[in-house]
Write a structure and sequence with these properties.
about 240 residues, Murine Class I Major Histocompatibility Complex, H2-DB, Chain A, domain 1, single chain, globular, alpha+beta
Amino acid sequence: MGIHCALALLLLLGCQGVPWAGAHSLQYVLTIQKSLSGQWSCEIQGCLDKMLFLSYGSSDDRFSPLSHLGKSISATETWKKQVDTLKDTQNLFYQKLLDIQQKYDTIPEPLTLQIALFCQQKGDGLAHDSWSFDFNGQMFHFVPDDRKWTEDHPGSSWMKEWKDDREMNEFLYKTSLGDCKNWLQEFLVYSEETWKPTASLATSPDMSQRKATAIKPEASVLWALLFCFLLLVMYG
C-alpha cells in the first residue's frame, strides 16, 4: 500500500511528487480527457529526478523539450524512441476509453484517465517499476515484474478485460522493464552534464502557457496526503 500511496502522489502532483531518497527515477504522467462537449485532449509530462524535461499537449500535437536536460536529450535517437512509445501509449488508452464507453454506457462524462509510468534505480542496484492509473477517481495498478493488476477498490466491471488483455499487458511489461529502464540509464548521463534544478512543474515557462489541468500545488499536497491517510486507515 505504501508504494501505491506514493504513486497516487505522483499522479496528483507530477514532478512535485514525493522524493525518492537515494534513488534515481524516471516518470511519465499522461492525462487523457473527454469533456462534456465530447472533445478529447491529452497532456504528457516527463520527469527525471523531479526535473521536468518533456511536455506534450494535443492542442499543438508537439513534444517539447524543457530545461537544459530536455534540450540535450532531444537531439538523441533515444528521444525519438521515447516520443514514439508515448504516442503508442496515448493511442492505446484512447482506444481503451472508447471501448469502455461503448460497452458500459453508464459511465458518466467527463472522462479523465491519468496514467503514471514509473521506473526507479537505486544505488544498491535494486529497481522498482510500475504503472498506476486513475480513471475518474478510481485507482488501479499494474506491476510488470509479475504482470498483475490490483485495484484500490475492487469491483470494476471492465477491469477483468484489461487483466485478460495479453497484448496490452505485454506492451506495459516491455515498456516499463525494457524501454523505461534504458531511457533512465541514458538520460542520467545527460543529467550529470546539464543538471540545473531550476525547472519544475510550477515554474517552467513552457508549461505556464498551457491550460492548467490540476488544482493549485498547495491544495494538491493536502488532498494527496488526505487520500493516502484514508488508504492507510482503510487497508492498513
